[in-house]
Amino acid sequence: MAGLLERYRKYFPITDDTPIETLGEGETPLVKLNKIGSELGVELYGKYEGANPTGSFKDRGMVLAMAKAAEGGAKAVICASTGNTSASAAAYAARFGLKCYVLLPAGKVALGKLSQALVYGAKVIAIRGNFDRALELARKASSEMGLAIVNSVNPYRLWGQRSGAWEVCDELGVSPDWMVLPVGNAGNITAYWTGFVQYKNEGKIKKVPQMVGIQAQGASPLVSGESFPNPETVATAIRIGHPVNGKKAAWAVRMSGGFFSAVSDEEILLAQKELASKEGVFAEPASCAPLAGLKKAKREGKLPEGIKVVMVLTGNGLKDPQVILSGQEEICEIDGDESQLREVLSQ
Ligand code: F0G
To answer: Where is the Tryptophan synthase beta chain-like PALP domain (predicted)?
Structure first.
């Protein structure tokens, strides 16, 4: 199995000394979403990043960041995370034989992600504070104690994540008209933009897409232009009030002629349900913000008819089962009895 590092070797800063490892990251499905697409009047695709080895897009950047950390002689890595980065860092640290410390906002990380960080053997430190504070602490610890930081302030992380954009173009043969992503710390949207620009400069695509960034209303600093000291949203992955890559992302979105938009938690959960029940695609809440954003754009008359739209479905729905189980879903319980079953099935 050739991993991302081998597949895109010529586009990555890989040397003869870079250790090459893979867990099978990348080459995720680009799923055509016919039903929802026709309701919106566009050709719609979801890049299903939940199919990555640790269930999110973070693996694309982590494999390169970890390889470069190992090449540089690091013995340990550190990151702050709303959950997915920690799961990915913990897995790849195990793979490359490095020690891993993760700083998480206490009580605000989805269960699946927390259990991943633990089982891969990371040292998990819960911070009584939000992600933004955890990242400040991680950056300080990294510079004072010589730990390699593997958040998206590490340039190799975003470099690896460009591969998502390359795969979309390789598969479609063109770039989409709109590329829609959920935005938290604003790294991924920046990485995709750089990936598209690089492919255009290589002559692989003729034009770059308009970049559309969707935030949760309770954590939407790039929509309002002001940081959120107390971000809050059901989409805990993007519960971030002061994105470190905010300036770069704002620039990318402006250059591309795209925009940022905010959606409510209700709209996010509705989009999650719709994606799963109409298309068979289960993505975590943050990943469904783009669909909520597209529906809002449609209502506001901002979504052009017939365009090609790709949403990045950033994380697997199984990461956060509680959000479903604490919702309105009803389970019908009966005795182990045929007549009761017949009654339910005939309703
Ligand atoms: N979607 C998911 C599922 C995420 O986990 C994240 C970020 C994003 C979207 C936003 O990406 O930060 O590049 O704008 N998760 C980080 C983490 C913050 O710690 O796992 P971004």
So the answer is: 22-315
Residue 2 pLDDT level (bands cut at 50, 70, 90)? confident
Q: Is 52 annotated as a binding residue?
A: no
How far is Cα 45 from Cα 55, in angstroms, rounded to an integer?
A: 18
CA of 336 to the centre of ligand 1 (A): 43
Phi, psi (5° rounding) for residue 19? -70, 135
What confidence tens digit (pLDDT) does each residue in 287-309 have?
999 999 999 999 999 999 999 99
Residue with tokens 């699946």: 112
220-225 long-range contacts, Cβ below 8 Å, gap at least 24? 220/260, 220/262, 221/246, 222/183, 222/186, 222/246, 222/249, 222/250, 222/260, 223/260, 223/261, 223/262, 224/262
User: CB–CB of 282/321 below 8 Å?
Assistant: no
Class of domain 58-149: alpha beta
Identify the three-state secondary structure at position 180: strand
Domain spans in the chain, listed from the N-terminal domain onward:
4-56+158-325, 58-149
pTM comes to 0.97
Cα R_g (the chain), whole angstroms: 20
Work out which ligand 1 atom sits closest to the CA atom of 186: 14
Residue 61 in contact with ligand 1 by CB distance below 6 A? no
Q: Is the Cα torsion angle 188, 232, 235, 310 positive or negative in sign?
A: negative
Q: In a mutational test of the pocket of ligand 1, which residue from 47, 84, 244 has the highest number of ligand atoms less than 8 Å from its CB? A: 84
Q: Is 26 annotated as a binding residue?
A: no
CATH class of 4-56+158-325: alpha beta
Residues forming a β-bridge with 48: 313
Q: Do domains 4-56+158-325 and 58-149 have the same CATH topology?
A: yes
